[in-house]
Structures are given as structure tokens and as C-alpha cells.
């Protein structure tokens, strides 16, 4: 099983892959080169530093917080952990819609009013995740408000990965290996280049991954936008996606078996 060498070392490898130096990254993030080099050398980054480091890399800051092993601030977390039961269903149905339907559904999500946060986000199931390649990848999916069942169903809908829900818990807890194929497919849902995610998790990809399908790209966008929804809003989106799928002559009507 791959050993995780640490956040700073993985960031250094990522910069090497992109052929970006510490000074260039620092300039883009409006930080000093010494601050960036300290992180690359293994110093623990603070919250403000991580917020500024993420945009020049094209990453969501929440993913850097997770990879650094830090608590995710409330303003970066999904609104409502209970919405996970509906988010996965909405994503699964949306993946079967034609492109126009997926765009329309995404617009509905974006148009919904923002409700107030009532409590801090706690991923469910709240099983402790150990440090390591699998822990980071699974936790990033949890912060797209996918529970294990949602991960299984959504990945099976838009990628070749077909695993049981319990398997994702085993990967997150370090009891099962994070494979190159799974890194490739999880990256699709995270909206991250698979080669970048491989570097950041210490997993070696032996071949250049194919580009994600339009359905997968749209599903990743939907998951990101749906993080701001309450449980009731997510339920409404799930019901709408199901209805759109049933009424669309162009939708793929294959049902997935229970996972």
C-alpha cells in the first residue's frame, strides 16, 4: 500500500509535474517565496495561507485543507450533512440526462436561495479516517456531500468504477488500497486532473488517463454546486432530476443494481 510522504512533499511533486517554481507560485498567491518554501519543506500551513495557495493551482481550497489534515472551516463545508442522502441520487439521475437537461438542472441548483447554516458539517458516516492516500481522496468526496452509498452509485454512473458502498469506507480507513484506477475515477468527480490527484495521494499512474466524459464533467459541477443545498432543497433537486430522466426520450434509462 502506498505510503503518504506528507503534504509539503506532495505539493513539491505537484509543482515539479507542472514545472512551476516556488517563487512563481508565491507570486501568483501573493505570498513570499519563504512562506511557500516553508510549506514545501514540511511546515504546517495556516488557514489563510492555504486559502491563498489554492487558486493559483486551480484547486478548491477545501481540498487542500483535507490533504493537509486540517479541519475544514464552516464556510468551505457543505451546508447540511443530511442532504447527502439526496445529493447522490440527484447526481446519479443527472448523469443519465442529455446535455441540455444536465445544464437545466445545474441552473435550478444555482437559482435556489441560500439558507442559513444551522450546525457545523460533520461527514456521514462519521468513521475516523486515518492519514494516507485513501483517507484524503474519500474525505474530499465526503466534502462533496456524498456518503459511501452516494460515492458508489455516482462513480458507477459516470466512470468504469463499480464498487460496494462499504468498500469506500475501507479505503478511507486504510483497510483497502487506493488503486490507480480509482484515483483516475475519483478525480473525475472532484473536478481535478487525475495526474494531479495521483501526485497528491502518492499513487503512481502508469498511463495517461483519458479525458472525462461530458456527463462526468457535468456531474462534478453539480456535486460542487449542490454543497450549498439544505436537505429539503436537495430532495427537491433529486425529485426533479428523477422526473426529468423519466420524461426525457434521450435519457439513458438503464438502472444500476443496488450497491
Structural summary, described in words:
This protein has 259 residues and is mostly helical. It folds into two domains: 7-72, 434 Repressor (Amino-terminal Domain) (Orthogonal Bundle); 81-247, no CATH class. It is 57% helix and 0% strand. It has helices at residues 7-18, 22-29, 33-40, 47-57, 61-67, 84-94, 99-111, 133-142, 148-158, 165-172, 180-190, 194-201, 214-225, 231-247. Helix 5 runs antiparallel to helix 8 (133-142), helix 6 (84-94) runs parallel beside helix 9 (148-158) and helix 6 packs antiparallel against helix 13. The longest helix is centred in the last third of the chain and has 17 residues, at 231-247. The radius of gyration is 18 Å and the shape is globular. The two termini are 25 Å apart. Residues 251-259 have low confidence and may be disordered.
Amino acid at each position: 500500500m502506498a505510503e503518504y510522504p506528507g503534504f509539503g512533499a506532495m505539493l513539491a511533486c505537484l509543482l515539479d509535474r507542472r514545472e512551476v517554481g516556488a517563487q512563481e507560485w508565491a507570486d501568483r498567491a501573493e505570498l513570499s517565496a519563504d512562506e511557500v518554501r516553508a510549506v514545501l519543506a514540511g511546515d504546517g500551513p495556516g488557514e489563510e495561507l492555504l486559502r491563498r495557495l489554492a487558486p493559483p493551482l486551480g484547486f478548491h481550497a477545501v481540498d487542500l485543507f483535507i490533504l493537509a489534515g486540517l479541519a475544514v472551516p464552516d464556510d468551505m463545508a457543505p451546508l447540511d450533512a443530511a442532504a447527502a442522502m439526496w445529493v447522490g441520487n440527484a447526481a446519479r439521475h443527472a448523469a443519465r440526462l442529455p446535455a441540455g437537461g444536465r445544464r437545466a438542472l445545474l441552473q435550478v441548483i444555482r437559482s435556489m436561495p441560500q439558507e442559513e447554516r444551522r450546525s457545523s458539517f460533520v461527514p456521514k458516516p462519521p468513521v475516523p479516517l486515518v492519514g494516507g492516500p485513501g483517507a484524503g481522496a474519500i474525505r474530499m468526496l465526503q466534502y462533496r456531500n456524498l456518503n459511501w452509498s452516494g460515492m458508489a452509485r455516482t462513480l458507477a454512473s459516470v466512470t468504469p468504477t463499480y464498487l460496494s458502498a462499504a468498500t469506500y469506507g475501507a479505503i478511507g480507513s486504510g483497510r483497502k488500497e487506493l488503486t490507480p484506477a480509482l484515483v483516475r475515477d475519483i478525480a473525475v468527480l472532484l473536478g481535478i486532473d487525475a495526474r494531479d490527484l495521483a501526485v497528491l495521494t502518492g499513487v503512481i499512474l502508469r498511463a495517461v488517463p483519458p479525458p472525462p466524459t461530458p456527463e462526468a464533467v457535468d456531474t462534478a459541477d453539480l456535486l460542487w454546486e449542490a454543497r450549498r443545498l439544505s436537505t429539503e432543497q436537495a430532495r427537491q433537486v433529486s425529485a426533479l432530476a428523477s422526473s426529468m430522466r423519466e420524461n426525457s426520450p434521450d435519457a439513458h434509462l438503464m438502472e444500476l443494481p443496488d450497491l
